[in-house]
Amino acid sequence: MMLTRCAVILSVPMLLLSGASKELPKSDLTLKDMNGQRVRLRDYRGKIVVLNFWATWCGPCKAELPMLVEAAKEYGSKGVVFVAASLDDEKTKQQVPAFVSAHEIGFPVWLGATGDDLAKLGLGEALPATAFLDPEGHILLRILGQLRQEDLKERLDWLIGDRSGPAPQAVVKHLENLHEK
After folding, report:
1. What is the pLDDT of residues 79-126, one digit of tens each?
2. I need a surface site. Which of 36, 99, 160, 178 has the fewest CB within 10 A?
3. If residue 99 lies in a helix (H) or strand (E), which one and from where to where?
4. pLDDT band at residue 176 using 50, 70 and 90 as cut-offs
5. Nearest residue to 139 (alpha-carbon basis) of 114, 119, 121
């Protein structure tokens, strides 16, 4: 199905963090960078990672990208790595370089992500979706739908802090404006 807006793209149940589970699985993802080179999420172990799934045709993705660009400038010096994984397909992926340039995205942009990747990482069925990984590669926090400044800041400050206070809500859903096209 060709998606023209942010929409439900798969029907796989979302995996949620369970308070009963002491051992979280390590997340991995292998895609291509903008130069066609293979890249792996596991290569960022040892760093806090913000992994954002988006597409050029997704309105909420476009709206949240300036916030991510600014956060990368602020938190990059604090050891946080930002990665943008595009779900653009063969028909739209040629738009990615111009999109990256227009939005002044200075962090890694990966190509070839799919709805299966979202499901595998417990990120639901819609774009945008963002995962926050600890240095060991565990997804500790997720935002399904468009990021909000306060959610982003709360999660980043907690992740780079001593984590002695209560953790932010593990999964936040901002999907009220998304619909199937």
Report:
1. 999 999 999 999 999 999 999 999 999 999 999 999 999 999 999 889
2. 36
3. helix 96-102
4. low
5. 121
Sign of CA dihedral 140, 18, 112, 179: negative
Sorted by sequence, the CB contacts under 8 Å of residue 45 that are 6+ apart come out as 135, 136, 137
* C-alpha to C-alpha distance for 10 and 21, rounded to whole angstroms: 26
Query: In this structure, which CATH number among 3.40.30.10, 3.40.190.170, 3.60.150.10, 1.10.10.10 belongs to the domain 30-174?
Result: 3.40.30.10
Please spell the DSSP secondary structure of 62-97, one letter per residue.
Answer: HHHHHHHHHHHHHHGGGTEEEEEEE---TTTGGGHH
Distance separating alpha carbons of residues 181 and 177, to the nearest angstrom: 12
pLDDT by residue (tens digit) across 16-51? 333 333 455 678 899 999 999 999 999 999 999 999
